Amino acid sequence: MWHIITAVALFVTYKIYVKILNCHSHHDAVLTGKVVIITGGSFGVGYKAAKDLAARGAKVILGCRDLDKGRNAQEAIIKVTGNKNVAYRKLDLASLESVRRFVKDFKDSGTRLDILINNAGAVKTGTVHTNDDIVESLQVNYLGGFLLTVLLVPILKQSGNGRIVNVSSILHRLGKMDLEKINCENVYNSFQMYCNSKFCNILFTKELAKRLSGTGVIVNSVEPGFIRTKTYSKNASLLENLSYLVQKLFLKSSSEGAQTLLYLALSDECEMVNGKHFSGCRETTISDKAEYGEMASKLWKFSEETVRLKCEETIM
Ligand SMILES: NC(=O)c1ccc[n+]([C@@H]2O[C@H](COP(=O)([O-])OP(=O)(O)OC[C@H]3O[C@@H](n4cnc5c(N)ncnc54)[C@H](OP(=O)(O)O)[C@@H]3O)[C@@H](O)[C@H]2O)c1
């Protein structure tokens, strides 16, 4: 009996702790006239964030690898928010050409840009190289977003006070930063590559913040917490639905995971905050390793070379 009481007490304490750590973007920011690009906005955390931003009146552009998913997300967001200013555009972060085409089309449209959220990410195998000869995980989770951001910075600068949010993970703490090996096939497994790429997101944020200092554009990184991916289905197996139940009890919903992204994108308190890392709408520490400025600037140089950035595109 005591075992059950102890287990229930521990579980309730855990839930209260998680609730305290959670936050809600209860600020009343209105985004009419503002333009947001969000990568991976077709699903999960990105979709929830996009919906919130659209509800506040922003023009929201979903950068999507899969256009069918993009269309479904667009239709759902318009239906729920009534904001017809929601668009989806082809953006495959695993292709440098796709990133460049996305930016060119956006620039050609002459649209302003106020907020860029680099949210898309996935655990990919550490063994596959993309057509650009980059390890897929590194390209999707970091280098694609690096190129996208660097190319969009001039437009963000024009808005006067642009904001960039880079989505990382607590797993960045397990990341390894050996630039000799990071883009080599079969050196790291999928999980380690994911951690490495999330560590890159943090170092990228640090270096970009330094380069943007004084421009009015700010950049910060965020860890959304562990989010449940399973959904209940009558047709799923017992094991799958048990896994859903466990996730439901212990992990955050996508909507909860989106709150810190929104906080960084919207809140007045963050207006002057640059180069910091957030969790649960609070500034938090990063891996000790990421404090090293030299590592961040080496990664920047490696990234410029790997995505074949032209001299005139560099942010000094
Ligand atoms: N889930 C967690 O527990 C957790 C924890 C810490 C950090 N994070 C980070 O939070 C972010 C969002 O996670 P999530 O849980 O919402 O993930 P998710 O549900 O799997 O959604 C990821 C989004 O990224 C898109 N995407 C994947 N590959 C892409 C590519 N090559 N080009 C463009 N878009 C691509 C996906 O599009 P498709 O639907 O077409 O694949 C999807 O819209 C990620 O950066 C993730 O690393 C997640």
From TrEMBL:
This is Retinol dehydrogenase 11. It comes from Eumeta variegata. Belongs to the short-chain dehydrogenases/reductases (SDR) family. Coiled coil: none annotated. GO terms for molecular function: oxidoreductase activity. Keywords: Oxidoreductase. It comes from the Eukaryota. SUPFAM superfamilies: NAD(P)-binding Rossmann-fold domains. Pfam families: adh_short. InterPro entries: NAD(P)-bd_dom_sf (IPR036291), SDR_fam (IPR002347).
